Amino acid sequence: MRIKLTSVFVDDQDKALKFYTEVLGFVKKADVPVGEFKWLTVVSPEEQEGTELLLEPNDNPAAKTFQADIYQQGIPAVTFTVDDIEKEFSRLKESGVDFKMEPTKMEGFSTAIFADTCGNLIQMLQLQ
Which of 6, 23, 67, 125 is the least buried, fewest Cβ under 10 Å from its Cβ? Predict the structure, then answer.
């Protein structure tokens, strides 16, 4: 068994696609119309056949509530690993990304948290 797809709720799929591709550097994998929304996924440029991240509309009231509540509680919706957290932090900060927690060393890893402009907190993690 393997994980092929996971998702984050977003308040605007087009805005999310722009942020996840142009700012974070992911690559669009799927963009299929499904009614008023899309089946819209991105992947890591280093693993284009790897796990896809579905940018899922938060149109469902339960999704909106869940997304808002975990954001307010400071809980990241997803975690991405990086090789050099300080380098990624600098690159993203220069792009205007809103960091809620700057890189912080903990036992065995470093972490940072930022907002994705679509209603989520995202955690970056560098294992040491």
Answer: 6
